[in-house]
Design goal:
alpha/beta; D-Maltodextrin-Binding Protein, domain 2; 2 domains; six-stranded mixed sheet; globular
């Protein structure tokens, strides 16, 4: 009887060990990507599914790493903090590399270029950058605002927010103290998503919205009465990269290797072309 009980216990021990090992292996084979699925065409929801440039590139990276991609949809700011804290393996959400962000996380090689543009209501008095700033005649740098009461709509924590919140001399819309704090009223109005910023624009709660060009096109296509400033009126040009927890060099090296292969064989170009048609 004792032998039978011992045998049963041994079998149960082996079984539990195999289950535990299997569970650990499954978790280890997952690549958890944090994103903010309100940034078309880079990431958005298509019914219950995730779609977009970042989503497809992430899927290809996971395949090359032999891992299962898991996507977590959170606010943009939570993408950055979650990756920095190690809650997620990587973040892809049209993320631009900045010196401030590099202090808390590491970035991959770039895989796409973004352009920050300005959306206004039809009939707006804002028709170009010249309607926003007064410029130094010699340097061409902005020195003051044409309208001190202007209200700028942005998606919070994005580079559109960062750039707009800077001092006027750095192409921002605020007067800043030496410590970087706002001297007077903060002219930048922040929203959870770009769509909310566009709604505020249509309701005349802000005078313009600064956001990436491709999402801007999607918002304009979905909303009547607004348009993107055309011509040489880009607000900023930037590169997108994947962020990982600072010091996670093993994962970063694997991601960069996968990106290099996906660039070399034309996969990334094909994915981008699928969502962004050439003019």
């Amino acid at each position: 009887m004792k032998k039978i009980v011992s045998l049963i216990l041994a079998v149960l021990l082996i079984a539990s060990t195999m289950v535990a090992f299997s569970a650990c292996k499954k978790d280890g084979d997952k690549l958890v990507m944090a994103t903010n699925a309100a940034f078309p065409p880079y990431e958005y929801k298509d019914g219950d599914n995730f779609a977009g440039i970042d989503v497809e590139i992430a899927q290809k990276i996971a395949e090359k790493l032999g891992m299962e991609l898991e996507i977590v949809d959170v606010d943009f700011g939570a993408v950055l903090t979650g990756v920095a804290e190690g809650k997620y393996d990587m973040g892809m959400a049209g993320i631009t590399v900045t010196d401030t962000r590099k202090q808390t996380m590491d970035f991959s090689d770039t895989y796409a270029t973004g352009i920050q543009v300005i959306i206004v209501n039809d009939g707006s008095a804002i028709t170009s950058l010249d309607d926003l700033f007064n410029f130094d005649a010699e340097t061409g740098d902005p020195v003051s605002l044409k309208n001190a009461d202007i209200r700028i709509g942005v998606q919070e924590n994005t580079t559109g927010d960062i750039y707009s919140s800077d001092d006027i001399t750095n192409w921002g819309f605020n007067n800043l103290n030496e410590d970087g704090s706002v001297n007077g009223e903060d002219r930048v109005k922040r929203f959870k998503t770009g769509a909310e910023a566009v709604t505020a624009l249509k309701n005349n709660q802000v005078d313009c919205v600064i956001i990436d060009n491709e999402p801007a096109k999607s918002f304009v296509a979905a909303n009547t009465g607004i348009h993107i400033l055309e011509g040489d009126n880009e607000y900023a040009i930037e590169d997108y990269a994947i962020c990982v927890k600072k010091g996670n060099t093993e994962l970063l090296t694997k991601i960069n290797q996968a990106l290099a292969e996906l660039k070399a064989d034309g996969t990334i170009a094909a994915i981008v072309a699928k969502y962004i048609k050439a003019n």
